């Protein structure tokens, strides 16, 4: 793995290049979220229709395989790439997965972190975790972390940092394959986060995973919590920052890679992302209040207004879905509960979100990241507000996007 | 008439033909996957083409409910609505009503049923069925027939057969697009050779573009089943396609093709996929079974499909029944298997190797030579010598496909 920062903007936002196995991508970038290594509704043959190389970095949780397939069998198959037939993709293993394998802080102890998984609550010791990692051979893997919610006591928070650092040493001692990203935790305590970051930074890791987000902290306290003083030359990855606004917050503090479930939530809710990607300027002028459903942030394909709409999800979008299908067809598929709806929406939403990351990079390279952020956030807020006024039941605050809340 | 049927090769009663339909030039024998509501189990059109699907089937009853035939018509027909470039067939809607709705009642006027939307009594007449199918716009449309269970006996069978003949004239005169859509008549008459004979003659007199053999695959014994098929195929014109409705077990398709049938449809390959079952030359493979968790082979090592090229049985095992992707991948493989079977039937007949193909097929499925007696009897009538793959005493008559699962 090689990582180099190419451009800075607004202090800490940065564009880098990450060379990993067969791919070289620019950061900030998105890791595609998967279920057992495959995007939720996209089979491997359809993956090639997504823009390369930025769609070739995939997240997965090794815990998804706990009861299904043994490390021995995975070893025999030859690892995760071999098991999924994805030889041009690079995998990043992160134990926590904000959909199915949630950290359960009160089940963790000094031996290992605990997770709520589909097969019940499971305590994972570093030795077991490393056995799975060694069999799967991901390109990057994140060390085990004791993630705690924002509201725990300082004492519990301090023990989470101690354990996380101890497990980091245990994991590194057992490493056989892949690049190690050391977990940084500390909950909502800035000092503890700094302390943890310092400990991780002096160890032999290739990058950092900033944990503990999306666990009840407020959006306002994030910038300070993300301000971790980690060495600048190594890549930083985070989980739990999902919405576009949250991603922008992360980028502003120097996060390079995002493990986000936003696309999944949007897709399962029957939504298509539609916010404009053509430069940062256009939009509000073209917005028609009262034009329900086209409020341009995302559209709900279940809405009856799309019953006869023969236009693509987004005009000019080059994704498989928009090149081939209409809103009317997807509306029908949703009405009759056919899975192709999710497949088509996930394809579009993934491409659209990758386009958003592309814009972020361009704005950093142009030294205009701060302006981009302000415009983007303001535009989206305005659009949400106008949509609310136009009678669309949508709250103006991004964090409260109706679908997002109901899906959590 | 909007089709051309050219026989390219024969072996006794079996034939391989080119069926030219308005939207596609098909090779028979062929299997038609069922896409009830304008889609097939999460598969994209590109995937269906890749698999080799030539004609897909839409269910008139379901499409008339959602999105409605009026909407499909307004948006330019089902081909355009779902952007399927190849051929399509719609059923009359009658069978679905009788089999799905308990309160369906058949009178001379048509099929009366309770609307699943508002519970009001509704009537589907032959005229209306054709009108709906004209709006949907498939290449082949089916006449409304009076459907009775094959296991029923007595005067009801005779009544249904004569009514089917009376209704065909109403269908023919209601058909508004004979130059774009081909109306197939359906031979009824239960298991009674005399009634079947009257029905075949009656339909042949009407000189329809093609004929279907209906009222089978409904739980009748296999010996009665193949005898009805043999009788009908012998009496139907040589230069028109013959479609055995509801038939989908690979073995049944091979037998019917040997007897001179050309087209088949069934939900079996996709339905069985949903329950974790894969079709393989040996019969079926139950991916849910615990031994699969350690099996690193592909589903069918001889299969060239995307799923078999990429995945092990162990990985599919960990998806099936838990993740949507499991049934999506199994459906893909199962449909590929059916299409490969169709292609093999076609080319073995064209190249004069049909008996060899049948023997190889039976040997794989019945390695101990336990070919069921009904298959032996049917093959004798078809003039195919299968003595090389039958054990001297065929004793395992009645062993069904699912029971064979453990033999694999
Ligand atoms: Zn698109
Ligand atoms: Zn296969």
UniProtKB/TrEMBL annotation, chain A:
Keywords: Cytoplasm, Metal-binding, tRNA processing, Zinc. The keyword Ribosomal protein does not apply. Residues 12-380 form the tRNA-guanine(15) transglycosylase-like domain. It comes from the Eukaryota. GO terms for biological process: tRNA modification. GO terms for cellular component: cytoplasm. One of its GO terms (molecular function) is tRNA-guanosine(34) queuine transglycosylase activity. Zn(2+) binds at residues 317, 319, 322, 348. It is found in: Cytoplasm. Transmembrane segments: none annotated. It holds the Pfam family TGT. Binds 1 zinc ion per subunit. Its cofactor is Zn(2+). HAMAP family: QTRT2 (MF_03043). PANTHER family: QUEUINE TRNA-RIBOSYLTRANSFERASE ACCESSORY SUBUNIT 2. Non-catalytic subunit of the queuine tRNA-ribosyltransferase (TGT) that catalyzes the base-exchange of a guanine (G) residue with queuine (Q) at position 34 (anticodon wobble position) in tRNAs with GU(N) anticodons (tRNA-Asp, -Asn, -His and -Tyr), resulting in the hypermodified nucleoside queuosine (7-(((4,5-cis-dihydroxy-2-cyclopenten-1-yl)amino)methyl)-7-deazaguanosine). Belongs to the queuine tRNA-ribosyltransferase family. QTRT2 subfamily. This is Queuine tRNA-ribosyltransferase accessory subunit 2. It comes from Trapa natans.
From TrEMBL, chain B:
The active site is at 91 (proton acceptor), 265 (nucleophile). The keyword Oxidoreductase does not apply. Its EC number is 2.4.2.64. Substrate binds at residues 91-95, 145, 188, 215. One of its GO terms (biological process) is tRNA modification. It catalyses: guanosine(34) in tRNA + queuine = queuosine(34) in tRNA + guanine. GO terms for cellular component: cytosol. Its main location: cytoplasm. Signal peptide: none annotated. Residues 246-252, 270-274 are annotated as: RNA binding. Keywords: Cytoplasm, Glycosyltransferase, Metal-binding, Transferase, tRNA processing, Zinc. Coiled coil: none annotated. Its cofactor is Zn(2+). It is found in: Cytoplasm. Residues 13-365 form the tRNA-guanine(15) transglycosylase-like domain. Zn(2+) binds at residues 303, 305, 308, 333. One of its GO terms (molecular function) is tRNA-guanosine(34) queuine transglycosylase activity. Catalytic subunit of the queuine tRNA-ribosyltransferase (TGT) that catalyzes the base-exchange of a guanine (G) residue with queuine (Q) at position 34 (anticodon wobble position) in tRNAs with GU(N) anticodons (tRNA-Asp, -Asn, -His and -Tyr), resulting in the hypermodified nucleoside queuosine (7-(((4,5-cis-dihydroxy-2-cyclopenten-1-yl)amino)methyl)-7-deazaguanosine). Catalysis occurs through a double-displacement mechanism. The nucleophile active site attacks the C1' of nucleotide 34 to detach the guanine base from the RNA, forming a covalent enzyme-RNA intermediate. NCBIfam families: Q_tRNA_tgt, tgt_general. Belongs to the queuine tRNA-ribosyltransferase family. Heterodimer of a catalytic subunit and an accessory subunit. This is Queuine tRNA-ribosyltransferase catalytic subunit 1. It comes from Trapa natans.
